[in-house]
Design goal:
- The chain has 3 helices and 4 strands.
- The N and C termini lie close together (8 Å).
- Helix content is 44%, strand content 24%.
- It has helices at 11-27, 39-45, 68-77; strands at 2-6, 32-36, 52-55, 58-62.
- The chain has 78 residues and is an alpha+beta fold.
- The protein has a 4-stranded mixed sheet.
Length: 78
């Protein structure tokens, strides 16, 4: 699974990365977790507000910090 955390490095973006890493480890998900911080690259994804979450090339979340439970559901369904 290829997971990308989208954001310029704000507090919410860092928290999303922390939650995603924690959930992936708990679920035993074999994932490559990357960060996308370049504004031009972010704009090409269609994400207008950060933080954002892209899994296997598909935008799964944008513009809000999800709960740990929401991230668990997103990873399970991906």
């Amino acid at each position: 699974m290829d997971i990308t955390i989208v954001g310029t490095g704000c507090m919410k973006c860092k928290k999303l990365e922390e939650i995603v890493r924690e959930v992936a480890a708990e679920q035993g998900v074999d994932a490559s977790i990357n960060k996308m911080t370049d504004i031009k690259e972010i704009a090409q994804t269609g994400i207008l507000m950060t933080p954002g979450l892209i899994i296997d090339g598909k935008v799964k979340l944008a513009g809000k910090l999800p709960s740990k439970e929401e991230v668990e559901k997103i990873l399970k369904s991906s």
